[in-house]
Amino acid sequence: HVQLVESGGGLVQPGGSLRLSCAASGIIFRFYVMGWYRQAPGKQRELVTTITSSGSANYVDSVKGRFTISRDNAENTVYLQMNTLTPEETAVYYCNAALSGSRTNYWGQGTQVTVSQ
């Protein structure tokens, strides 16, 4: 039974920071590319960042320099440190696990991030 459980979302003021976590179970974590996506109200879900098992990360241009993805393969957990948040980044943030070389992937339930005064 695969589970991806996100935590760390909440309300933050513009310019503030949040750290999201995603704990995985039921998968061989080190085989998976982990990613964070987000979906704002009325918009499509978009990729924010991914990280390979060896720690190679990619980011969408809009978050480069402000967001940092990391993973702990011993703890089966991936993190997203988000700094200098803007109201436009209000969204539900989802954790994704994608098995390298296949179409197999899993989603968490999402965690709400609200950036507002």
Structure characterization notes:
The protein is mainly β and 117 residues long. It has no helices and 11 strands. The strands form 2 sheets. Strands 2, 4, 5, 6, 9, 10 and 11 form a 7-stranded mixed sheet that branches. Strand 7 (67-72) and strand 8 form a beta hairpin. The model has no long low-confidence stretch (mean pLDDT 97).
In terms of DSSP E residues, the strand content is: over 45%
Distance between the termini: 40 Å
Dominant shape: globular
| Rg computed from alpha carbons, rounded to a whole number of angstroms | 13 Å
Structural class by sheet pairing and helices: mainly beta
The total of beta strands comes to 11
Major beta-sheet overview = 7 strands, mixed
* Low-pLDDT residue intervals, each spanning 5 or more residues: none
- Pattern of helices and strands: EEEEEEEEEEE
Please tell me the overall pLDDT.
Answer: 97
* Helicity level: under 10%
Task: Describe how the helices and strands are arranged.
Blueprint: E1 3-7, E2 10-12, E3 18-25, E4 32-39, E5 46-51, E6 57-59, E7 67-72, E8 77-82, E9 91-99, E10 105-107, E11 111-115
Parallel strand pairs: 2-11
Antiparallel strand pairs: 1-3, 3-8, 4-5, 4-9, 5-6, 7-8, 9-10, 9-11
Keywords:
seven-stranded mixed beta sheet; about 120 residues; four-stranded antiparallel beta sheet; mainly beta
Report a brief summary of the structure:
With 117 residues, the protein is mainly beta. It has strands at residues 3-7, 10-12, 18-25, 32-39, 46-51, 57-59, 67-72, 77-82, 91-99, 105-107, 111-115.
